[in-house]
Design a protein that fits this description.
alpha/beta, Rossmann fold, 8 helices, 53% helix, globular, binds shikimate-3-phosphate, EC 2.7.1.71, amino-acid biosynthesis, magnesium ion binding, cytoplasm
C-alpha cells in the first residue's frame, strides 16, 4: 500500500509523513527530495534554470515511476503534484494507493509560509503578508478542486501532530 499525502505547500505533508512512517514502520519518500536526487538539482534551481514546465514534466514522470512500484511506503507529494496533467486521476486509479489530503486553512498556511517561502519558487518573490494572502487564497481555491478528490480528508487546524497522525 502506498499512502499518498497531498496538500498545499506547508500543510505538513513532510512532517506528518515522517511521523506516520515511523508509526507504521513504512519508508517515507518525499517527491521533491526524490526529484532533487534524480535531477541532481534543487527544486529552486530546476525552476530557475529549466523552468516550471520542465519541473512539472519531471514531477509527473517520477510520480508514475513511484506509483508503479509494488511496495509499501508513504509518498509525500509537492503541493502542485495533484493539480497538473492527469496526476490526480493516476493517483485515484492506483489500486495499491490511498490518498490523504492534509487540509489546512488559509490563515494557517499564510502564517507558516511567510517564514518558509524562500525555498518555494512560486511564492519566494512575494513580499508582504497581504500579497501572500491574496496569492495563496486564489491558488488554494483553484487547487482545492483537486485536493478534495482525495479518498480521505484530514482537517489539520488546531490539531497536534500526534492527533493528525492518529487520524
Ligand atoms: C510546489 C510545491 C513544492 C514544490 C515546488 C512547487 C507547488 O512542494 O514541489 O516548489 O506547486 O505547490 P511543497 O508542497 O513540499 O512545498
Amino acid at each position: 500500500m502506498i499512502i499518498i499525502l497531498i496538500g498545499y505547500m506547508a500543510s505538513g505533508k513532510s512532517t506528518i509523513g515522517k511521523k506516520l512512517a515511523k508509526k507504521l514502520n513504512y519508508d517515507l519518500i518525499d517527491l521533491d527530495d526524490y526529484i532533487e536526487e534524480k535531477e541532481q538539482l534543487t527544486v529552486t534551481d530546476i525552476f530557475k534554470n529549466k523552468g516550471e514546465i520542465y519541473f512539472r514534466k519531471q514531477e509527473t514522470h517520477y510520480l508514475k515511476q513511484l506509483l508503479s512500484a509494488n511496495e509499501s511506503f508513504i509518498l509525500s507529494l509537492g503541493g502542485g503534484t495533484p493539480c497538473f496533467g492527469n496526476n490526480m486521476e493516476l493517483i485515484l486509479n492506483e489500486t495499491n494507493a490511498k490518498s490523504i489530503y492534509l487540509k489546512a486553512s488559509l490563515p494557517k498556511l499564510v502564517k507558516k509560509l511567510i517564514k518558509k517561502k524562500a525555498k518555494r519558487p512560486l511564492i519566494a518573490h512575494i513580499e508582504t503578508e497581504e500579497a501572500l494572502t491574496e496569492f495563496i487564497g486564489k491558488h488554494l481555491f483553484e487547487r482545492s478542486a483537486f485536493y478534495n478528490q482525495a479518498e480521505v480528508v484530514v482537517a489539520t487546524d488546531g490539531k497536534s501532530k500526534k492527533e493528525i497522525v492518529n487520524e
